[in-house]
Design a protein that fits this description.
Number of domains: 2
CATH class of the largest domain: Alpha Beta
Radius of gyration: 18 Å
Largest sheet: 7 strands, mixed
Number of strands: 7
CATH topology of the largest domain: Rossmann fold
Number of helices: 10
CATH superfamily of the largest domain: Vaccinia Virus protein VP39
Strand order of the largest sheet: 3-2-1-4-5-7-6
């Protein structure tokens, strides 16, 4: 299985490093910033609690669990039309109407996946009103999904005990106990003042939120919860997580406005 959408900060290329640094054993798996779920779908834990602040994204997980085939059929019906800019913008407008009226149905989930395959650079970005505003990528035809991948995800979400939440990261961790495992993959602290990949929700992720996350990390660690966190290798991260195990590694980023800036240093932080 693999992610059903391309997502800023996706962890597909980091999977080997994450596996190498995860605990040997744990009870319940928590992922409070699940995003496209690359790590979750590679681990397939038997018991998991996943969460994201992006309600439209979480809606896709819920519909994959409850109505996989209907979701596949809808996306394939979108693909039957030759996609031009007018068709793309019509689908984007439909999606934004649903967001405006907070309609989280199966069509909203299908539109989110379809738009991700037809928008510029697979970027999920919203404006100050929370509306999706990424332009068309000029892709006219072709399948927007791998049906077998979506079916496998749906089967996993039904076979395992996976609780799916949409909300604050701290609330998602409230039930974490000793020997549970929490992987934090929050929006990254920018490498420069001009970098900004926090607009996948209209509220962004501020310095105060990063500070709150580091406090939660320390509180959970004191309870005996096994913790792993990834972020950019910048001084503030070292400051916030001083005293924990910090490992640096070079990565290649798939989503960046400038192709010359698609390499960078990241860290994996653990408390074990």
């Amino acid at each position: 299985m693999g992610p059903f959408v391309k997502w800023a900060g996706g962890k597909t290329q980091l999977l080997d490093a994450l596996r190498d640094n995860m605990p040997e054993s744990f009870n319940t798996y928590y992922e409070p910033f699940v995003g496209a779920g690359a790590f979750l779908l590679s681990l397939t834990p038997d018991i998991a609690i996943i969460n994201d602040i992006n309600e439209e994204l979480i809606n896709v997980y819920l519909k994959l669990k409850d109505n996989t085939q209907e979701l596949i059929d809808l996306i394939e019906s979108f693909d039957k039309e030759i996609c031009n800019k007018e068709y793309y913008l019509a689908k984007r407008d439909c999606y934004n109407q649903k967001i405006t009226h907070h309609i989280l149905d199966i069509e909203t989930a299908a539109l989110m996946i379809w738009l991700n395959k037809h928008c510029f650079n697979g970027l999920y970005r919203v404006n100050s009103k929370g509306l999706f505003n990424v332009p068309y990528n000029n892709r006219k035809a072709g399948s927007s999904i791998d049906p077998n991948n979506l079916k496998a995800i749906g089967e996993y979400l039904n076979k395992a005990k996976v609780k799916i939440l949409a909300g604050d990261f701290a609330k998602a961790c409230e039930s974490a106990k000793k020997d549970d495992f929490v992987y934090f993959d929050s929006p990254y602290i920018p490498q420069s003042d001009t970098a900004n990949f926090t607009d996948y929700t209209k509220t962004g992720f501020s310095y105060e939120e990063h500070l709150r996350l580091s406090v939660l990390f320390k509180e959970l660690s004191a309870k005996g919860v096994k913790l792993m966190l990834s972020n950019n290798d910048v001084p503030l991260v070292h400051e916030l997580y001083q005293g924990f195990n910090i490992k640096s590694l070079e990565v290649r980023r798939n989503i960046n406005r400038n192709a010359n800036n698609r390499k960078g240093q990241e860290v994996i932080i653990t408390n074990y």
